[in-house]
Specification:
This protein has 239 residues and is of the alpha/beta class.
């Protein structure tokens, strides 16, 4: 009888062990490199803002054509300038031709475009904080225009806070090209799982994740700080 009770007790204990849900060990991260987009993350998404200014100033009726010209679609002049295939002067000439803007209206269209990019609230201060902390490698990964980078750096002096840059015009790829992300791999100085892409577009994060990168979709600097802490990124600052 005593042996039977012991056997029953043993079986109950065994059943309880099996039935008890096992706690999952929280995933830990070892982030070494932070990868920043520019337009839409460090800066405002300037193109939509610029299009509204240009539309009003020049009385543009064909809004779809205007949007297409400035887009990164593969056969648009917006794509060509981002890939470094034409200069900003050639871009200006082609825009005026396609939109039939008279030459006497000599405001530089590209200036409206470039000036529509302004730093997002608290982003310069946050990037400076991360850079000065020395804890993480800081990289820019951006589909951009060579002349716009020079213009914005002269105006805002931001490039000095980054360790490396990967621009579309240097590699003739944009962020829809997976080859661009392979180029990025050569600049992070760590494994992809130790790097984190910060971008405002989901497809960019999806492309990065296909190669092992972590990702955060940016909406504002305060949200970014909260998300970074989930990846064990050390952030001792709030706004």
């Amino acid at each position: 009888m005593e042996d039977l009770i012991k056997e029953q007790d043993y079986n109950e204990i065994l059943e309880n062990i099996i039935a008890t849900p096992q706690l999952k060990t929280p995933k830990s991260y070892d982030i070494k490199t932070l990868i920043f987009d520019l337009g839409g993350v460090y800066f405002t998404a300037g193109t939509p803002i610029a299009l509204k200014k240009i539309e009003r100033l020049y009385g543009i009726q064909d809004k779809r054509l205007l949007k297409y010209i400035f887009s990164s679609d593969s056969d648009s002049i917006g794509s060509q300038i981002r890939l470094g295939l034409i200069t900003i002067d050639e871009f200006e000439t082609q825009i005026r031709s396609k939109l039939r803007i008279p030459k006497y209206k000599n405001n530089c269209i590209w200036q409206f475009w470039f000036n529509s990019y302004i730093p997002n609230p608290n982003m310069p201060e946050f990037v400076q904080y991360l850079s000065k902390s020395g804890k993480y490698r800081m990289v820019i990964f951006s589909g951009n225009v060579r002349e716009r980078i020079k213009f914005l750096d002269k105006k805002y002096d931001f490039l000095k806070y980054f360790d490396d840059t990967i621009f579309s015009f240097d590699y003739q790829y944009n962020k829809r090209d997976i080859e661009f992300y392979h180029e990025l791999l050569d600049h992070i100085n760590c494994k992809p799982k130790q790097a984190l892409i910060i971008d405002d577009h989901r497809y960019v994060l999806n492309n990065g994740q296909s190669l092992g990168f972590n990702g955060i979709q940016y909406s504002c600097t305060e949200q970014l700080i909260k998300e970074l802490r989930k990846f064990d990124v050390i952030v001792d600052i709030d706004f």
